[in-house]
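In response to reviewer comment 3 from the previous cycle, which asked for concrete evidence that the modeling workflow produces usable outputs, we include below a single protein chain processed end to end. The sequence was submitted unchanged, and the resulting structure tokens are shown without manual editing.
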Amino acid sequence: MSRIGRLPVTVPANVDVKIDGRQIQVKGPKGELEFEFTPEVSITKEEGQIIINRTSEEAFSRSMHGTARALIQNMVTGVSEGFTRVLQVQGVGYRAEMNGSNLVLNVGYSHPVEIVPESGISFDVDTRAGIIKVMGFDRQQVGQVAANIRKIRPVEPYKGKGIFYQGEHIRRKAGKSGKK
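The workflow returned the following structure tokens.
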């Protein structure tokens, strides 16, 4: 049995969960999420906990058991606490700033790159430290927006300039050596 799938998901008091067959709807102070699962898993709510069981012992059913539990846990955590992804901007002349709710990046192009946040996403920028925080209640959406921002100017391996996740290890290369 899946070690992750057999763990129940604890529902906080400020989160409302509605289960309608394979459809689950989670509503909390940060927002509202819903998802429809495959028929290989069954979802029940008992005493403030959500329990996920699989309907058969086939390989796909076993794989969806842990996946369904992780998705439900992310939904509950997202609508109650939210998710944050932290990016860092590094390089001479590279900076990030806010223009209203939009994120403006000056990262070596001839023009500033402006990013309009999707619904459910917000940005926070520390201009002195070069830190961008992407915040939202949908974990997949937060990660995708952060990946799209990182893709604007990926880190180059020689000087370490670019946009990267905080805590990410940047693999550095040696420059070319002189002729002997």
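The chain has a mean pLDDT of 92. We consider this sufficient to address the reviewer's concern, and the full set will be provided in the supplementary archive.
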